[in-house]
Amino acid sequence: MTLSIPGASTFDGKRIAVVGMGLSGRASIQALHQHTRALLGAWDARAQALETLDSAMLDTCVGIAEPEHLIESVLEWNPDIVIIAPGFRQTGVEWRRLRQAGIPVWSEIELAWHLRACDENGQYAPWLCITGTNGKTTTVTMLETILNSAGLRALAVGNVGTPAVTAVSDTSSEAPNAFAFELSSFQLAATYSMEPTASVVLNVADDHLEWHQNRDEYAAAKASIYERTHRACVFPLNDSIVQAMVDNADVIEGARAIGVSLGVPSIGEVGIVDDIVVDRAFGNRRQSQAQELFTIDDIMHLAPQGYDLPVHIVKDAMTAAALARSIGTSPSAIRDGLRLFRPDAHRIEFVAQRAGVAYIDDSKATNAHAAQASLLVQKPASAIWIAGGLAKGAQFENLVERVSDRLAGVIVIGTDQEPWRAALDNLSVPVVFIDTTSNEPMREAVAHAHSLARPGQTVLLAPACASQDQFTSYADRGNRFAQEVRELVVAGEEE
Fold this sequence. Notes:
The chain is of the alpha/beta class and about 500 residues long. It has 16 helices and 20 strands. It has a 9-stranded mixed β-sheet, with helices on both faces. α13 crosses α14 and α15 (about 440-450) crosses α16. The radius of gyration is 24 Å and the shape is globular. The N and C termini lie far apart (about 65 Å). The relative contact order is 0.09. The model has no long low-confidence stretch (mean pLDDT about 95).
């Protein structure tokens, strides 16, 4: 099978500025250089980020730390298009100046759409696109496993794994033939042409408000994933916010709204009957009968050690199944894929137990919605909660109110502690704030948690915040937590 990139020629002679030399920026330059005859320029606030670039690919390469000067340098180069990294906020001077100048601002995802490969019959690999405040990575990796179980060469891309533009422009004989996209609001805010085969917004709660102009802009970015969808706009039933996004979307004629429900499904829905997940949305006989997709027992291995299967895991599996069904995936492949699926690290992951106290790593809970899901799994008055980090403009009063009955104590890490002081001010359980200048914040947090915890309780790292103030990533934060817990366990064995 021969693959080509019809959209590549539209970039010939265009001046393309790539701003931000992270993973997506470097991948954008490489793909443009490999597949087009565009004139390329690279900019970054860190000069060292540019040092390893191949200068032969570039017309110009500029490192300027000061944002105003950096964007002026970009504008002086007179680009036709700017590919901007997610690290540049929509509220920042870079976006503002580019808009004032009338220059199109693209995400790497928008570029990927224009550089996607097709076969000799003009067929493109389907894009199954997922966004939401919480559950994106679990759902997209479940979907990848399901599609591979169906015999496809499927790949999870976007906010995970291989950069999208690299994967979709692959013209080799081993190129993927289906894509599961995890898309953030940052990426969607600068994506305008994408036409998903199927799409879903899992949920929407306040997050990244420091990046967008306001919560309406954040929600609008999420909602845009439904625009131009071809087959299925999947949504959680009884979520009026997401359902309104589907109702208002301008889709390709023939696209259908597909609801996901924890109850008995109606026509056009995926739901549950007697612990069996069934499809009344895609089967040929959906008018009169439901088709079994998988059972709850098929995903029981995803329950954290010592806990019931969380409801949000069930919803994620059902959503992945619905997306897979939109391109004709068989029920047997869905069942087999979910049986094979194993979650990523740092998502409600059991670390150890000492003196009757369980230690759970949910460092991937980087927003309030995710932390809430993790805390509500706990028994009343049982959780010593380690929270905090970069708040990203969020407030936590509503979160604390919703989970307060689960708490036996709170430890706050991170440098952005003021939102937590306001939210925890009236809490009746012990609250400890780790000094923002601490060289070992996680060590101190685990030590305080250990002193507060009693047998039968759980020390839960579910920060509701980003990690990059004191750690390099949520994975680094989770690893440091696990390291401190294991040292604590070893110390207990030596006592």
